[in-house]
What does this fold into?
Amino acid sequence: MADTASPEALVRLMTWLSPAFPVGAFSYSGGLEQAVADGDVCNADALRDWLASLLAHGPLWNDAVLFAEAHRSVEDAAGLADVATLAEALSGSAERHRETMLQGEAFLAAATSWPHPVLDMLGDAAAYPIAVGAVSGGHGIAAETALAAYLHAVVSNLVSVAIRCGVIGQRDGVATLAGLEARILALAAAASRSTLDDLGSAAIRADIASLKHETLATRLFRS
It folds into this structure.
């Protein structure tokens, strides 16, 4: 990667993006549970391809672009407010909106343990990538490093969803993360140099899965 994190920055990222950090990420699947129910994700290869698509041209790419913009806007209250509004507006379904907003709200509440003026700029709630991006920028953590950690955490949660849905086991879960490592690092590097002009998603089946999940009869996850 182009930049390196100080030990303090590394520890903070590990804490903020740990499964123990109280954002409730374990409750959300981003439509993956529906994809499993539909048979679109039925084994490790299909899961890897699904996640790679989300990273390359799906909601994870858009979240990374929004994260980078929030990271750059930590000294621009108006700019930060604008990108926060845009991030919320880009939520493609009711469940996607609830997922990103409630995780962002929980993140901001927990992040008050590390006081910073950016928390006052954001208020009580913001979309999850906006919250993590702005707080990371406020604490001087380089965008590429923060993005890599954020994307790895999100993908790790989705791998955990697949394990809990019975699609793969833990060994395949680790192998999936290893196989996506280069993609995550490349996406973090690209997104750190992006602008809002780079927003765009073409993961139509993932969007439909997120919409269909609202009426899935039996489910483990909230999205």
Observations:
- The chain has a mean pLDDT of 95.
- Residues 111 and 146 are 15 Å apart (CA to CA).
